[in-house]
Structure of ATP-binding cassette domain-containing protein:
Amino acid sequence: MIRLRGVTKRYGEVLAVDDLSFDVEPGKVTGFLGPNGAGKSTTMRIILGLDRPSSGEVLVNGRPFAAYAEPLREVGALLDPGSVHSGRTGRGHLRVAARTNGLPLRRVEEVIEQVGLDGAARRRIKGYSLGMRQRLGIAAALLGDPRVLLFDEPINGLDLDGVRWIRDLLRRLADDGRTVLVSSHLMSEMEQTADRLVVIGRGRLIADATTAEILNGLGRRQVLVRTPQPVQLLRHLEERGFIASQLDGQDLQVEDRTAEEVGELAHKFGVPLHHLSDVQQSLEEAFIELTGDTVDYHGRPAEVTP
Ligand SMILES: Nc1ncnc2c1ncn2[C@@H]1O[C@H](COP(=O)(O)OP(=O)(O)OP(=O)(O)O)[C@@H](O)[C@H]1O
């Protein structure tokens, strides 16, 4: 269990984390989402005691991280897989980590097997692919068999196999009853990965709920309907207080209603329908709606000069 209460972090003028409070529960994968620069890495560093908050408190299983004599047995983290000594072999790197943290060397072999690095453990890290570095970083995080695990953007840059592997691993770790916090700036990545989502933007908490709640709660309900009589249907809809607009040609879009409601109304007035569907807001749209105001730099289509 990780508990943050009123955590704030300033770097000079920059308010990187702004009064953040949330809990990360055991037995679940919690996605930590926010656009670039939202404050995810800073928050993770604060949880790990690598950075001090300007104010507020973080407890890991009831105590500050710094209070643990053997922190690797309590918390494992994958922060920056690029930061390892690349002249060492994978096995050598893990052995150093085990020794300096008072962990038995047999754990090195166990985690190598667990992350599927058996074949590469003898090789120098500088020859590793990104996926292999991620696996090595995860092996290091698992070394102390910790109950709490933090992964900062573990899916970044991985191929589909790598993504699937990480998803399965996160699920297994959570099913073991561990506390798993995994950051991402992409909502779509979290769809199949996270049970809960903590969404931040510009250092502030935007949402903290189950993935389903966030998606359903945000999902503006819309109905798409196609009819050869769009003008008539639009008039009937508007007369009954529906908010509708005509899209291209025969298509209408109806806000905040269900396909049943629209279908029944069309039937009542004898308007033929060629298509009728509820439109699900995509995850990415939901995320943009949540964090839209908090993104510093929006991508805009290039202006076309005539
Ligand atoms: N050491 C630092 N000194 C000054 N500013 C910093 C420092 N670390 C982070 N920041 C600033 O704090 C804000 C949050 O950064 P952070 O890296 O935590 O965001 P993030 O959500 O992890 O982003 P990304 O997805 O890009 O990794 C940014 O504006 C960043 O420039």
Summary: Confidence is low (pLDDT under 50) at residues 297-306. The chain has eleven helices and 13 strands. Residues 244 and 254 are 4 Å apart (CA to CA). The radius of gyration is 24 Å.
